[in-house]
Amino acid sequence: MRLPKNHQNLSPFEALLAAIEAGDIVSGERLQEIKLAKQFGLSRTPIREALHRLEALGLVEPGPQRGLVLATLSYERLRQLFAVREGMERLAIELAVANASADELQLLDDMTRVESKISDARMLHDHNRLFHSQIYRFSHNPYLEEMMTNLRVHLSLLPGTTYQVPARREEARAEHKALVDAMAGRDKARAVTIACDHLRNGLRVRMAMINSAGG
After folding, report:
1. What range defines the domain where residue 92 resides?
2. Is the domain of 79 the same as that of 160?
């Protein structure tokens, strides 16, 4: 695994989360206390504590041998995760429509303009993550924002990105723009519908990717 470049400014737990989100740790990869302690320049105790926290979140699990490995997000767990995410996304959109300032909504619109000029799949993936994080932030509910961040980290267990599929790139761009327009118009019902369709379409593409890889 590779640690974030600024890992010296992060706790072991935060650095490992960042590495998971960046795809620098892959599902099934062993997380060895001794190796990590050496990489961090720390004793094994804070590393062990960080791994225990990741295990409690369901991000790491016991491996076939002694030690822990990065968890794998199964087909069924993915469906369960998206079901929870859709419910929370509805609330996030409703709150953001009600609470976001005009400047915050303008920022989202600016982000859709930037997105329209990005072609690289990984850069689009990172931009998409930031776009949704901003929506959660603009709900102005820190508890909801924290819960949505936890869900997002679990999605990082999935390999690759749906933006590898060209049709999905164009579809997602259009969905983001329509969502922002509905939010700017303070149309809560339309914004929620677009957001849920956006999630379901992403899940559809992800399931197709999983089925293709398995077959």
Report:
1. 75-214
2. yes
The CATH number assigned to the domain holding 113 equals 1.20.120.530
Phi-psi region of 74 (alpha: psi -120 to 50; beta: other; left: phi over 0): beta
Largest distance between two CA atoms of the chain: 55
Among 129, 172, 124, 118, CA closest to 21: 129
156: alpha, beta or left? (left if phi > 0; alpha if psi -120 to 50): alpha
The pLDDT value recorded for residue 215 is 46
CATH number, position 23: 1.10.10.10
CA distance 82 to 96: 20
Q: How far apart are CA 132 and CA 153, in angstroms?
A: 13
**C-alpha torsion sign, points 49, 53, 55, 60:** negative
Could you read off the pLDDT of 112-123 as tens digits, one per residue?
999 999 999 989
C-alpha span between 141 and 135 (Å, rounded): 11
Residue with the two structure tokens 């579809």: 171
